[in-house]
User: What shape does this take?
Amino acid sequence: MKKTLCIVLLVALLLPASLVAQGSKESAAAKSTVEYTPVGTFPIVKTPITVDIMVAQPPCVEDYNTNRFTKYMEELTGIKVNYIMIPEQAATEKLALVLASGDYPDAFLGFGVNNTLETTYGAQEGLFMPLNKFYSKEWMPNMMKAFEEFPGGIGFMTNIDGNIYSLPRLEGCYHCSNQAKLFVYQPFLDKLGMKMPTTTDEFYQVLKAMKEQDANGNGKADEIPLAGSIIGWSDQVERFLLNSFIYTDLDTNINANADDNVGYMMNNGKVDTAVNKPAFREGLAFINKLYKEGLLYNGSFTQDSSQLTQLVESSAQPVVGFAAGGWRGQFATIGGERFNNFRAIAPLKGPKGAQYSVAFFQNPEIGELVLSSDTKYAEAIMRYFDFMYSPEGTLLQRNGFKGEAWDWAKSGQVGLDGKPAVWQQLKLWNDKDPQNDTWIQTYTAAMTPSLKNGLASKPMTQDNPEYYLPGNNEKTLFDETFNLYKPYEDTSVEVPVLKYTAEESEKFSTVKRELANYIRQSAVKFMVGSLNVNDDKVWNEYVANLEKLQLKSVLDLMNTAYARQYK
Ligand SMILES: [Ca+2]
Assistant: This one.
């Protein structure tokens, strides 16, 4: 298999560029004959046209030119695409070769052209066409509608020169969008006769009761009311708890990215930070109190997820009351008694009313379709691909044909979100075996949260004994997120992904890293008490150090980048 791929790759690379691009020259000559129908109608052209698109070919698609979905698109739109197939492993290399050759196809599909390459080939060399005009409801109504479910998505697509050079792949992980979750071992609450806490005060009372009233009933004071880990997928207790005081997107793991999850937040349209605010200090003080009183496991700021799982699982009797994590599998053995009995809890209301779910933006995948700047068929190609961002276009491209692989939902069917289902799956999605019906791996499509959650599913409620079992995991993840976390999400306070010029990156990368390290380490020290959070002198010195480490310059830089992309 590997050998065959190598040969294919070699042939593709040796193919003269002139041969590859022949089609586009013919097409260019035929320009005068193109007559378009009104935008939003099909076919797109009154007389058929042919365009050349180079496509990165995954092993699961036999031939893009004879593929049934490709044929469907041709019949629908009147646009014949001559797909020039490049094995996906060779795509990036081939892109560079073709762009250096001077002979280009009309477009490149599925090359996943990253931000750096968009800057090089788009902003600097002008080889990619700016697509700003097409990012409008007039031109691409389906894509623009899908973007409504990806907050900040269009800004994310925007290059530092203000242009947008590509069409995206849109697919969001719904439950990941509020991944800073906390779970409680329900049998402990039942034993103590206590309700799910809803405020930080109630939470404190439950922790104390777990510790002092033998929640596991073995006669020993062996309970660990609250535990997390510092290395793991949102296993940090503070990621959940600080948000009862101020909106805080902070990952205290020292190895986390220096740009994201460093406590930055939007404040009245400006990039700001939580980490120098009095409310942040109050949050740290609350956690420090839990730590000092032995309610919070003292290994929480040094251990990783597997050690946390050992803590939850290894004792004969359950000991851990609350555990932090992106889902139950972060701290419990999937399908085990403990896994099956942990329940997600909603963000707690803090003493001053703060109650947030951290928003984790599900960003588009950039660079899935780029146009050569000299193509004569930009309008046709954009309209052709816009169809694929509709629910129907996405399902046809990804799953297969209506009535065979999927269908619209029947009345009475219920989606993952408990609302009337949008669609039902008739055949399991499979990207392992080569086939020629669909494209399977979508490039230009929108599996939006509403479409994903609109998949018909077996209705099951929480009183069903199977509800919390692994087989129902997708539904459990959805319900927890939808019912407990979404109501407390405010996407306007989360800082979207920011892009920097090469000069800015060079100037600030060390500064940002040092600042992030200081913020993360200081937060941990305040929580465990090696820095006294209740001592004004210590706190003021910390705030002064943030300034010394150029917090203001970093915020100014972020605001410059924000204005460039999102205003
Ligand atoms: Ca006990």
